Amino acid sequence: MLAVVLLVAGCTGGRRRGGGPYVPTDGGGSDGHVTMPDLGPAPDGYVPPAPVCGDWTVDEGEQCDDGNRTSGDGCDSSCQLETPASCGDYTVNDGEECDDGPSGSELCDSDCTLAMCGDRVVNSAAGEDCDAGSSGSATCDRDCTYVLCGDGLLNAAAGEACDDANPYAADGCSASCAVEAGWTCTGAPSSCTRMGGGTIDRSASPALSIPDANTTGVTSTISLTGSPASTCTVDTLTVDVDITHTYIGDLTVTLTSPGGTPVILHSVSGGTADNIVGNYPTTLTPYGLLSDVSGEPALGTWSLHVVDGSSTDTGTLNTWGVHITCI
User: Does the reported pTM lie above 0.70?
Assistant: First the structure.
């Protein structure tokens, strides 16, 4: 210590640099550079100053030093390099609502926003098949599932006019989600109701002899025109028949709609019984289904065809008629 004091005292001039060790200004080299004196080994017990983060010097243990202790500029407050903030790094950064990694989670989308159907981000972890926004699309329903007729979600973009939450027809909404004739459907799931359309009652009195043992038989027609037939769709149908015959087991009686749908009313049954008089299906049991013509237009020509397929017994088609309830 004495040598250091003497050295400093022996200098004729000098200055201190930044509060650091004394730096003499004389005794320098001919080029004007200062020659630092050899101060010898550090005294016993000397502890060098600790590195200071923010002093523009990268000291031991520091990865960087940008002259400040502010994070968010690439070099953090402890002089360590910062990883650039990004969605998917499991850290919720500024502008992010959440961050559950690159694939997201049930609660957090992969774009670091809270999971929500209708945000146009498909989140399979949240059970989404698709996400086309709040209105859906032709392939994606608004609940973020694929379009399926019968799921109760009305999707006009997919061409659905109704969806009554079932895949069945004849209830107002068809199996392809179209409104059936004579029905109105509203809401989702759709509620369908029949439209009222009145009734039609028409009859004919042909008094036609039925050829014996002749497959050609006889045919009588009823033509429905004007109102309400012009706007009528068949809901229910009953048929009056008055046929005199001495052996009804010979007869086949067929009704045909304007649309060409045949309904067999009587098919060589009844044996030796006489006459077919009554109403199908009120007092007589039809062989076929009258409901086969439901949903068809009533407008046009209805026909009744009677054939006697066996010889000996004969008869007459006296009268017949239709009673139609319109949808």
Answer: no
